[in-house]
Amino acid sequence: MKRELFLPDADATGALGAALARVLPARALVFLEGDLGAGKTTLVRGLLRALGHAGPVKSPTYTLLESYEAGGRRVHHFDLYRVAEPEELEFLGARECLGDEALVLVEWARRAGDWLGSPDLSVALEMAGAGRRAVLESGSGALLDAVVREFETLHEDPSLSH
Ligand SMILES: Nc1ncnc2c1ncn2[C@@H]1O[C@H](COP(=O)(O)OP(=O)(O)O)[C@@H](O)[C@H]1O
Ligand SMILES: [Mg+2]
């Protein structure tokens, strides 16, 4: 199932991240698709801020993985742009991360082939004028509806995101 959202600016992308923080269960696998600059890391930043993470959120472009504990939850943020072969993920300790009770957010997940398995949710971001279009896909329509509802609430009243 799919839902589409329009994200007029970076704050809206952050609000979508915050909506995911509210709706996703403690353990979930999320793929973030879209070209360089589409807003994948911006979304993760919004999610972490919503969980109460106050420090920096670095793009894991070089480290491939950044892990966080925030709001009583564990978050693993992967960026697989530089991964040439799925086997590299073994060295990263990605197997352990997938087994954790954690939110696992993966930029460039397709570089991992089938290694990651199928996600609970995928968010594809693409340029749309000065903003972005987000296409959300999940096997659960209820999850998608909850994300869209939370996004609309948070986008209207950004003070709720923090
Ligand atoms: N909905 C949006 N509309 C306009 N600009 C956005 C939107 N979402 C994010 N941006 C901007 O686009 C850039 C995206 O960078 P980033 O999140 O690092 O992308 P990615 O991780 O996909 O490469 C940032 O400058 C961010 O402020
Ligand atoms: Mg990024």
Outline the structure in words.
With 162 residues, this protein is an alpha/beta fold. The protein is built from five helices and seven strands. It has helices at residues 10-23, 40-50, 88-92, 94-99, 141-156, and strands spanning 2-7, 28-33, 65-70, 73-79, 103-107, 121-128, 131-137. A seven-stranded mixed sheet has the order 1-7-6-2-5-4-3, with helices on one face. α1 (10-23) packs across α2 and α1 crosses α5 (141-156). It is globular. The relative contact order is 0.26. Magnesium ion binds at residues 40-41, 59, 79, 107. Adenosine-5'-diphosphate (ADP) binds at residues 7, 9-10, 12-13, 34, 36-42, 59, 107, 130-132.
**H and E string:** EHEHEEHHEEEH
Work out the count of structural domains.
1
Ligands present: adenosine-5'-diphosphate, magnesium ion
Structural Rg: 15 Å
Unreliable stretches (pLDDT < 50, length at least 5) are none
Report the major sheet.
7 strands, mixed
**Structural class by secondary-structure content:** alpha/beta
Shape assignment: globular
| Side-by-side strand order of the widest sheet | 1-7-6-2-5-4-3
Distance between the termini: 29 Å
CATH superfamily annotation: P-loop containing nucleotide triphosphate hydrolases
Corresponding CATH architecture: 3-Layer(aba) Sandwich
Broad CATH class: Alpha Beta
